[in-house]
Amino acid sequence: MPDVRLASPRGRWILLTTVLGSSMALLDSTVINVALPRIGRDLDADLAALQWTVNAYMVTLAGLILLGGSLGDRYGRRKVFVVGVVWFAAASLLCGLAPNAGVLVAARALQGVGGALLTPGSLALIQASFHPDDRGRAVGLWSGFGGVGAAVGPFLGGWLVDGPGWRWVFLLNLPLAAVCVPVALRHVPESRDRLAHGRFDVLGAVLGALALALVTYALIEAPGGSAAVVAAGVAGVAAGAAFVVVERRRPDPMMPTDVFASRQFTAVNLVTLCVYAAFGGFFFLSAVQLQTVVGWSALGAGTALLPTTVLMLLLSARSGELAERIGPRLPLTVGPLLCAAGMLLMLRVGPDASYVADVLPAVLVLGLGMVTLVAPLTATVLASVDVGRAGLASGVNNAAARAAGLVAVAALPLLTGMGPETYRSADAFDEAFGQAMVICAAALAAGSLTAFLTVRRPPPECRRPECRTHGSVLAPPIEGQQARKRLG
């Protein structure tokens, strides 16, 4: 039984290294959007390259995150976590030194691999190390400090882009890793799941990531209309179908398809796809809108979007408590509608927009909507399956959210007619941005309707979320790694 106490020096070191590790991945996912216009100018990159700068990371992270948790269970959570941190730092160095957009995209894909190893491992180390009496408070502190990191991310990213340069958005990970790795090796006890056995579902992981990559490529390159684009789209769909077949037939699948036998679980993941597609599209485009169209600096754009994260950090725990009292159906219906209203308010944000009159009302309404829906969404996912599969359900839901975001980043420019150089033109981008906000609002409305028609109050004995405080705007938290059944 784990016996480290939170108040002990060792307990504080464990908390420090897990927070630093998870913050590395969280910071990169939140600050990259602010840096995109500057990256495009410095590397002479077109819009497709900027889309890939975001999506290359998301493809490997979403495709491999379930496998990453399994590797930690089998080979040691500390070992895999440390490998993930070192891998992520090395890929970050390559990002920071990238001489062109192609190298940057490849390095971002490698970053996603590291993120898939360290993201599930950070919470697993908390759960596997601390005494049961301290575990809840340790998880609370871990998620709270992670939320603070998410809140600081856009501000810090904007400051770095305007000051030392966008490359320091990535190079900042090196000193964090330099602290994280030796602390983990010295103070964090090794742990593994002794019941884990069987073969790893490498084929499933490869097929999942390949399907995401090919579909993303087809959507981003679709304006070219070449035969290669059509072939990639068909191959992506085929890889997705093969993934489902493999997961159904393997004795030890990465993602057991029978988890979708729960209608509630399936419905909540449909809601997740709708809302996180909208969130991914919004945060990708809005940072460019504020810089290219409104004319603000990267720091100004990053700071402008900060209230969404701050509201989640301050109110997510209370939102979860309210949902426990009244049930998740109302929050999951009202929350997406509030978010849709916030995105429609962004239609007022154009040239010479005022922050107080135009931007702030939109991000406040959006933030309140996210507060309303994220905690109940996580709780409903956990409640929709057996307690022993709660960690699996959370991992699948997290991967679904990331996949939805990357598809939105790939598809929205196509749906709104953005050309390769649109992000350089204030007038052209402003028009496309308005269309994109309407599409995102429609996706949120679809999520709201799905929740209203399908979500029901969970049974009283169901699993409750451990991460009560949450600050990430691009994916729900991963829960219960230690409690979950083996994923591969």
Automatic annotation (TrEMBL):
Membrane topology classification: Multi-pass membrane protein
Keywords: Antibiotic resistance, Cell membrane, Membrane, Transmembrane, Transmembrane helix, Transport
Organism from which the protein derives: Streptomyces achromogenes
One protein family per Pfam: MFS_1
Regions crossing the membrane: 12-36, 48-68, 80-99, 105-126, 138-160, 166-188, 200-220, 226-246, 267-288, 294-317, 329-347, 359-387, 399-420, 432-455
UniProt key word Ligase: no
Domain Major facilitator superfamily (MFS) profile per the UniProt entry, residue ranges: 14-459
Highest taxon of the lineage: Bacteria
Intracellular or extracellular location(s): Cell membrane
Protein name: EmrB/QacA subfamily drug resistance transporter
NCBIfam families named among the record's database cross-references: efflux_EmrB
Keyword flag Repressor: no
